[in-house]
Write the structure tokens for this entry.
Amino acid sequence: TVATLGCGTARATDFSIGAGGGASRGKVDCLAAFPCDRSDTNFKLFAGYQVTPEIDVRLSYFGGDSFKGADLSPLGTQFGGTFKVSGVGLTAGYLWRFAPAWSLHGQLGVASVRTRFDYADPFSGSASKTTTQPTAGLALGYDVTPAVRVGLDLDATRFKAHNTRGSLQTLGLFAQYAF
């Protein structure tokens, strides 16, 4: 069975591409001296390969997330600014079809997450950091046609800039085309 799965010919719907967007929330620290805003919008683009009818792998790019937050330096000085988060993720997923046109897709993987921190006045400059983080997602999908799927998805990962760490959750709509 394993040899058959690995050496079989490609089906018409083995590959897919998709896009999505929605709301995001970044958990960052806040201090009274600087503005704090943990909500923004995001987008993602993805391409996938269906290994079996239930199992797939995906490569995705996400970004557009921007949050305002603050922290303390090791010397106790307050600083604030804007976190800008983007990344590339590789996940493996499982698709469960629970009704004729409805499905639930779960995925786990890793992401290379880049965080750029732009300092607020009176400071100037920016700093960026790229880290490898776990990523997970869950999507409720509806098959409009055998090749087109739309739905609602929830994704989560983490980010880091300097010693400040935060979590990133996104909730949005997506469309996927299989070919």
Remarks:
- The two ends are 24 Å apart (CA to CA).
- The chain has a mean pLDDT of 87.
